[in-house]
Amino acid sequence: MSRAPLLHQQAVELSEFDRLLVNALQGDFPLSSAPFDDLSERLGYSAQELMAGVRSLLDRGVITRFGPLFNIERLGGQFSLCALKVPAERFEAVAEMVNAYPQVAHNYQREHEWNMWFVLAAESAAELATTFESIVQRSACPGLNLPKEKEFYVGLRLEA
Amino acid sequence: MSDSASRPETAEPIERQIVTALQGGLPITRHPYRQLSQQLGIDEDELLQRMQQMLDEGIIRRIGVVPNHYALGYRYNLMVVWDIEDTAVDAVGAAIGELDYVSHCYRRPRQPGWPYNLFAMVHGKSRDEVDGKIEQLREYVGAGYRGHTALKSSRILKKTGLRLRPGET
Predict the structure, then answer these.
(1) pLDDT value, residue A60
(2) Pairing state of beta strands A116-122 and B102-107?
(3) What CATH number does the domain located at B70-152 have?
(4) Is there a single domain that holds both residue A92 and residue A126?
(5) Out of B65, B96, B151, whose CB is closest to A66?
(6) Is the CB of A123 less than 8 angstroms away from the CB of B66?
(7) Distances (CA, A) of B77 to A110, A146, B36, B103
(8) What number is the ipTM of this complex?
(9) What percent of chain A is predicted at pLDDT more than 70?
(10) Which pTM value belongs to this model?
(11) A70 CA to chain B: closest CA distance, Å?
(12) B135 — phi, psi (to 5°)?
């Protein structure tokens, strides 16, 4: 059931069919009993071909997910973007320590003195605060806790 | 529609069940929603209606594929952060959020050692492309501008996504 996340960061060779799928399926996947059949006519491929195509995109890491993208904050919970200023020689060890927290949803290395950026997701404000404090303390690095105050836009369709 | 207006921020349990069941994605089968509905013990029609409602309410942002930026050749993924006058930041955020190459745009608090209050994610296939986009953003910011910097993502360290963790309270 759980698949190891494909974190490769290289461009992948894409066929015309791959591009068609990525460009056509970044939203508006039908909510219907037989959605691949519904798409079949518009895209000019059979339901079987479309299913095989999507499976292949996942297997090759061209897409990281197929399905609904949730605005999970609407279901409750607390979220924050946090950062650490980590000395280069300790970066790997700190990354391992931070990633081990189940509350850490994403973690990125960035080219900046604030070089580690991660999203914390917790059930409550108290859990979020405790988790952040714990990470700052154990890493012995300066930390930033930057909860979202206002969202202007989320979403992007990338041209393949 | 009528009950959604008075619906509290926390969603109904069935919606949480749907989210939990779909966290790993939609099954790639001829009848993906039917398979899911059987798993949840509800009718396929009811599931489709619920999910449509979640789409309408914005609990589901969209349904489809989520591309890996890097795999598509978008190697330059930058978090561009701006220090903007408090009186101007919301107008600038709204304007920048409209641009088709900005994927996320948020206002966040300043902190000691961190003067930036507006965050915009920008993606491109070359350094020149993203530099051009940042230059354009600078023009949108206008008079409220006090500074900015761009933080290029150099490595994904973890990406599990935001998940509900059932069983924890």
Answers:
(1) 94
(2) unpaired
(3) 3.30.70.920
(4) yes
(5) B65
(6) no
(7) 10, 20, 35, 10
(8) 0.79
(9) 94
(10) 0.79
(11) 4
(12) -60, -45
